[in-house]
Write a structure and sequence with these properties.
The complex is a heterodimer of chains A (266) and B (257).
Chain A (H helix, E strand, L loop, with lengths): L2 H16 L4 H4 L2 H16 L6 H5 L3 H9 L4 H7 L3 H7 L4 H4 L3 E4 L2 E4 H26 L2 H10 L4 H31 L11 H25 L4 H8 L5 H19 L2 H9 L1
Chain B lengths: L4 E9 L8 E9 L3 E6 L5 H8 L7 E6 L2 E2 L5 H7 E4 L3 H4 L5 H11 L4 H14 L15 H13 L5 E5 L7 H13 L3 E5 L3 H7 L2 E6 L2 E7 H5 L2 H6 L6 H10 L9
Parallel strand pairs in B: 3-8, 3-9, 6-7, 7-8
Antiparallel strand pairs in B: 1-2, 1-4, 4-5, 9-10
Helix pairs in contact in B: 4-5, 4-6, 5-6
Classes of the chains: A mainly alpha (266), B alpha/beta (257).
Chain lengths: 266, 257
């Protein structure tokens, strides 16, 4: 199995993960979606030197990993391509920001603090998105989006894009395999072939994506009815779960909870 | 089950302007017969099947399914009566698990969950794939995918079945199972295939396509035994008949004796 086929299987595995019957999976998708948006908004709004305040936000991913019985190792393995990119964003801060800030009795480089904050924001936001995908199916998310009255075209676009990624990756897998078998001494696809390779890939995956869509149509798929079916009523437990976490996000965002707790013991 | 009926009259269609794939094509089918659709590659077999379910609306002529013209306003009703098994099963299996995929159509038609459950179980049992129910689609073999794809269509309880190369990717055992399934299913079926032995085994009537038209419509035995006719249209005798005909005509093949 080559890397593209592996990635396609990884998406299928993620889909199966979202279909498990864990406590977090059972929470209403709309609540999880809004919580994720709220969490990311809270995380990115932290001041650039407030690294300790930001640490408090770790509680949400930790709790979700535990409640959902998800593997932290798998999460970082799946995010390994994006995580370095997110971390690189803050690498130059120590050079650009030469100020010093005081933390208790210690003076620390402001650039280092802002770098850590930026990295933390990126990692936490990515983890929150991952946790949403790992505990909510694409169809359920579509149902949640339709409850928010988003246009049907936008939701269908989201659903088909999700399906299209797998189709595209499978096609990449087939083509690279066929290429490698006829170019055994080459590593990867030679740059001379990138143009036609990409063109063929686009045409072939469009054909397949079209067939997948036709197959959906022929089995009664109509966006509106499909999304309506995905809608499930919100119950008190879901609302309580959402309200609890939103209150906690607000608490961590506006009060130095960790410093206060630390102050009790010091 | 309702009386199934397909009426195609003077249908012409082309993907590009000025290059017709189907030219004034006509035929009728009704009841519960199995009809084989044969012809060279690129002759328009798959295109014809797709026209019947309204996937390409820009044709000229008329197509009626159960008396209803294939037009935009009737498509939902027509598609609920016709099951289409794609040549490439991967195009059909887009859900994560077998269970979900087979339940896709009944759920889309708004059936109650208990009925969906019953249909899924029955469809999987009919194709002998009940044991695959909880499997993930990506972990299925080519043959299993094909049988599950057929189950996904049977769960709609259609009156008409259109099958594009149903025996492709099947090993001999699964092919025999498919033939058994095709005999048992009560629907009107159109089976497009290059597998002449499959057509001979399952279809009482055969349509031979060439140059965008039906050039022969008749009993399967009669058409598939006509070596000259088949050869003239780029086809070959079914393997099972090849030996018989050679022996009957005195051309003993010493290389296999």
């Amino acid at each position: 199995m080559n890397r593209a086929e592996g990635a396609a299987r990884e998406i299928s595995r993620l889909d199966m993960l979202a279909r498990r019957d864990q406590r977090v999976n059972r929470i209403h998708p709309l609540v999880k979606f809004l919580l994720t948006v709220g969490y990311i908004a809270a995380v990115v709004s932290f001041p650039k030197y407030d690294v300790f305040g930001l640490l408090g936000m770790m509680v949400y991913p930790i709790a979700t990993f535990l409640l959902g019985e998800l593997s932290v190792r798998d999460a970082f393995r799946r995010l390994r391509v994006v995580l370095p990119l997110v971390c690189v964003a803050g690498l130059f801060n120590p050079l650009l920001d030469q100020n010093r800030v005081r933390l208790g009795d210690v003076w620390i480089s402001a650039g280092v603090l802002s770098m850590l904050t930026l990295m933390g924001k990126g990692v936490f936001s990515l983890l929150a998105s991952y946790l949403l995908i790992a505990t909510t199916t694409a169809e359920a998310l579509c149902g949640a989006l339709s409850m928010l009255r988003l246009p049907e075209a936008v939701i269908t676009q989201f659903l088909l894009t999700f399906r299209y990624i797998t189709v595209l990756l499978e096609e990449v897998g087939r083509m690279t395999q066929a290429y490698a078998l006829r170019a055994p001494r080459q590593k990867g696809v030679h740059r001379k072939v990138w143009g036609p390779f990409a063109g063929q890939l686009l045409l072939r995956s469009m054909d397949r994506a079209n067939e997948v869509y036709e197959s959906m149509l022929l089995r009664g798929f109509s966006g509106k009815r499909f999304y309506q079916r995905q809608r499930t009523p919100l119950c008190g437990r879901d609302l309580a779960y959402g309200a609890f976490w939103l209150a906690l996000f607000a608490l961590f965002r506006f009060f130095p909870v960790l410093l206060l707790v630390g102050g009790i013991f010091l | 089950m309702r009386e199934a009926e397909i009426a195609v009259e003077g249908v012409s269609f082309g993907y590009e302007k000025g290059r017709k794939i189907l030219k004034e094509l006509s035929f009728q089918a009704s009841g519960t017969e199995n009809i084989g659709l044969i012809g060279e590659n690129g002759v328009g077999k798959s295109t014809l099947l797709k026209l019947l379910v309204g996937l390409y609306p820009e044709f000229t002529g008329t197509i009626r399914i159960g008396g209803m013209p294939v037009e935009k306003k009737n498509l939902a009703k027509i598609r609920s009566q016709i099951g289409y098994v794609f040549q490439d099963s991967d195009s059909q299996l887009f859900c994560a698990s077998v269970d979900e995929d087979v339940a896709f159509a009944p759920r889309n038609y708004g059936l109650p969950e208990a009925e969906v459950e019953r249909r899924v179980e029955r469809a999987l049992a009919m194709t002998g794939t009940l044991h695959l129910r909880d499997r993930k689609n990506y972990s299925l073999s080519g043959g299993e995918k094909k049988l599950v794809a057929i189950a996904g269509i049977l769960s709609m309880s259609p009156d008409i079945l259109l099958m594009d190369e149903p025996s492709a990717a099947l090993d001999p055992k699964n092919r025999r199972r498919l033939i058994g399934i095709l005999h048992e299913l009560p629907q009107l079926k159109i089976i497009a295939s290059h597998d002449m032995d499959l057509i001979l085994d399952t279809c009482s009537r055969t349509l031979l396509m060439a140059d965008g038209r039906i050039v022969r419509d008749g009993a399967t035995e009669e058409i598939l035994r006509d070596g000259e006719l088949l050869e003239a249209h780029g086809l070959e005798l079914p393997l099972r008949l090849q030996g018989q005909i050679e022996i009957m005509s005195g051309k003993m093949r010493t290389d296999i004796l």
